[in-house]
Amino acid sequence: MYVHVPFCAHRCDYCDFATWTDRAHLMHDYTDACVRDLAARRAEGHPPATSVFFGGGTPSLLPAGELVRVLDAIERAPGAEVTVECNPDSVDAAKLRAYAAAGVNRLSFGAQSFSPHVLRALGRTHDPANVARAVALARDAGITDLNVDCIYGTPGETLDDWRRTLDAVVGLGVPHVSVYALTVEPGTPLGRRVAAGAVPAPDDDDQADGYLLADEVLGAAGYEWYEISNFARPGAQCRHNRCYWEQGEYLGIGCAAHGHTGGRRWWNVRTPERYVARVAAGRSPEAGHERLDGAARAEEALQLALRTRRGAGVAGPAVEELRAAGLLEPGPGPAVLTRRGRLLASEVTARLALALAAGTARAGGAGVRVP
Length: 371
Fold this sequence. Notes:
12 strands, globular, nine-stranded mixed β-sheet, three-stranded antiparallel β-sheet
């Protein structure tokens, strides 16, 4: 179950997500709509949720009682993982205790950087010291399954800046760390500044250096990569995100939320007003859907699996060529990206997808085959 919370106190300069800073007056009605939507979904006979993820936006900006109201409306399997994304500035002891009492057992804090000038370049407003404060409050509330999100490759960030951020995250002792290369999206404040030449675009080589440093520092601290951008200590992988990478089924609740059920991918209307209005009128909030045919589904499975440490079960001459080039780990078994291969994941995936398509087009050809 994914629940989208579209409210933010401030929109970061790099963000192109479906979020709004001027819709706080809709919070109660939006919560009502989510609860009603959940009741309709439950009537469709879906099984209890094995994981729940409140994303956004800033879910922790909702009053605790409103978020708990939505969570209480979700039928959950025993031991379900329940994650809430949090801004370090929008949590306090009372809110985190309310989360824990309602069944929240995992939190994800958006730190992005521990260098103030990098945070300013990203349009972030939080004080880096508040990350450590938020982590301490979470542990005091009894929530110890914690993630910290970080971004590397911001214009003006040096490798030393990034190392200090990584060292700070390791010092927090959280069991899970996510590291993402900054992507400049058109239409965002950062995108407009880059387009105007006011700031440089992220440098590919600098971002590669940043990723390699993250792999080195986190690996030395006992974190293992299990997806290109995600590192965890043993037993701390995010079950919810693994569902996405394994093409599992999930329901999307809230505006702009996506779902995948019965081989059908669907998405809800983008704005909170339209979502509230449709649900209140007893109409489906879905805006569109698609079904992947066998070839498209196989290609997607390849793309997703290659991002993970589990790898993709593929074989053929193209796989052996990529092993010989040092982009896939040597030996028999699934195709797993090497560290260098992770830097070139899109290229590796494209080559294997082309070989897979060629192999599908001519049975017994020289393409990749899926055992």
